[in-house]
Design brief:
Blueprint lengths: L1 E5 L4 H12 L3 E6 L7 H10 L4 E4 L5 H10 L4 E4 L6 H6 L1 H22 L3 E7 L22 H19 L4 E7 L1 E3 L18 H10 L5 E4 L11 E2 L1 E3 H13 L4 E7 L5 E2 H12 L5 E4 L8 E2 L4 H7 L7 H18 L7
Parallel strand pairs: 1-2, 1-4, 2-3, 4-5, 5-6, 6-11, 7-10, 8-13, 9-14
Antiparallel strand pairs: 9-12
Helix pairs in contact: 1-2, 1-8, 3-5, 5-6, 7-9, 7-11, 9-11
The protein binds nicotinamide-adenine-dinucleotide and uridine-diphosphate-N-acetylglucosamine.
The site of uridine-diphosphate-N-acetylglucosamine has 20 residues, from helix 7 and strand 8.
Length: 339
């Protein structure tokens, strides 16, 4: 298939491009480069040994998107392009609603107009809110605590309504749990700007000495050791989940959790990182982070049943690959600020 990958120069998008190319698909990548570097396109080509077609463009711009669809034969779209910083979405809600919703609507409209029947959407486990774990696809969604989360829930509803009105259109809503890790080459991975908000990049930067100490947000949750439990998934497994979703996509709306089904606490993750990489990660316990829930992990059985996909890489591999990427990245970087 000829696959249009929006946000394909970003973290999950770049790994998915590699997985698509390795599975024999062609990709057209579009990205406005607002949260990534242009070099990731060369790195995708380097890993997969295939030339990648890339356009720097904003997918909220209906006219440019129309030209793209007119000029290329597209069999399917994987829509990653979006803004994802939870805190920023609270400060700038309009930026998030416009970017994340308009992009989805513009792309869906182009699909309908040009007869593209496969649309895969990046959703998030955040749409489950504080439901009872493990989260199942059939659960009623609960309100999220921030505009970012709302854009995911709203995009899911918009796409579902579009399918109701256009029953031949096929949409896969992929609810990601916590993507971590990097490609084993160390060429692509997650390189957050500034101080990371998410646990794994923060741990990696503490290990590297860029940050002094990990702050663990609360140890009084009703979990195995009191710290928050999450379902960490290796980004390469996640990427392969997209290929499976696209390959199996038929008309209608199909919702899948992409997680491992395994919960890991913050303390367990720190220990796994230390053991996998033979390095110390100093930490202190601080207050809970507002908006956090105690536990979030998937019932991942539907994706296995219907797509034949399961996550294969364990927490040790996730920690090892995150560390390898952090080391490679910091070796190339000039900055060595300790905060
Ligand atoms: P990312 O920021 O690395 O990638 C998103 C890419 O989209 C970036 O390269 C950015 O430049 C681009 N982009 C943003 N707005 C655009 C626009 N209007 N037009 C063109 N390009 C645009 O983030 P990621 O972690 O790879 O996430 C990909 C998708 O998965 C996002 O939609 C995100 O909300 C969703 N998601 C991510 C996580 C996670 O933890 N990383 C979890 C759940 C869902
Ligand atoms: C965050 C986002 C969520 C998004 C998800 C995946 C928030 C409030 N939620 O969720 O919307 O879908 O990432 O990208 O940002 N932790 C620490 N110290 C740290 C960082 C994190 O103790 O410095 C803990 C958290 O309290 C949590 C766990 O580590 O228990 C994982 O945190 P994080 O990586 O930020 O992911 P989520 O909270 O699951």
């Amino acid at each position: 298939m000829n696959v249009l990958v929006t946000g394909g120069a970003g973290y999950i998008g770049s790994h998915t491009c590699v997985a698509l190319l390795e599975a024999g698909h062609s990709v057209i990548v579009v990205d406005n480069l607002s949260n990534c570097k242009r070099e990731s396109i060369e790195k995708i080509s380097q890993i997969a040994d295939v030339k990648v077609t890339f356009y720097e463009m904003d997918v909220t711009d209906a006219q440019t998107v129309d030209v793209l669809f007119r000029n290329h034969h597209i069999d399917g779209v994987i829509h990653f392009a979006g803004l994802k910083a939870v805190g920023e979405s609270v400060e700038k809600p309009l930026l998030y609603y416009v970017n994340n919703l308009v992009s989805t609507m513009v792309l869906a409209e182009a699909c309908l107009q040009y007869g593209v029947k496969r649309f895969v959407f990046s959703s998030s486990a955040t749409v489950y809110g504080d439901n009872k774990v493990p989260f199942e696809e059939t659960m009623n969604l609960l309100p999220t605590t921030n505009p970012y989360g709302e854009t995911k829930a709203m995009s899911e509803r918009i796409l579902t309504d579009i399918v109701k009105a256009n029953p031949k259109f096929g949409v896969s809503l992929l609810r990601y749990f916590n993507p971590v890790g990097a490609h084993e080459s160390g060429l692509i991975g997650e390189a957050p700007n500034g101080i990371p908000n998410n646990l794994m990049p923060y741990v990696a930067q503490v290990a590297k000495g860029k940050l002094k100490k990990l702050k663990i947000f609360g140890n009084d949750y009703p979990t195995v050791d009191g710290t928050g439990v999450r379902d960490y998934i290796h980004v390469v497994d996640l990427a392969e989940g997209h290929v499976a979703a696209l390959d199996n996509l038929t008309a209608g709306v199909h919702i899948y959790n992409l997680g491992t089904g395994q919960g890991t606490s913050v303390l367990e993750l720190v220990k796994a990182f230390e053991e996998a990489n033979d390095i110390k990660v100093p930490y202190e316990i601080v207050d809970r982070r507002p908006g956090d829930i105690a536990s979030c992990y998937a019932d991942a059985s539907k994706a296995e049943r219907e797509l034949g996909w399961t996550a294969k890489r364990d927490i040790v591999t996730m920690c090892r690959d995150s560390w390898w990427f952090e080391k490679k990245m910091s070796d190339q970087s000039v900055s060595s600020t300790v905060v």
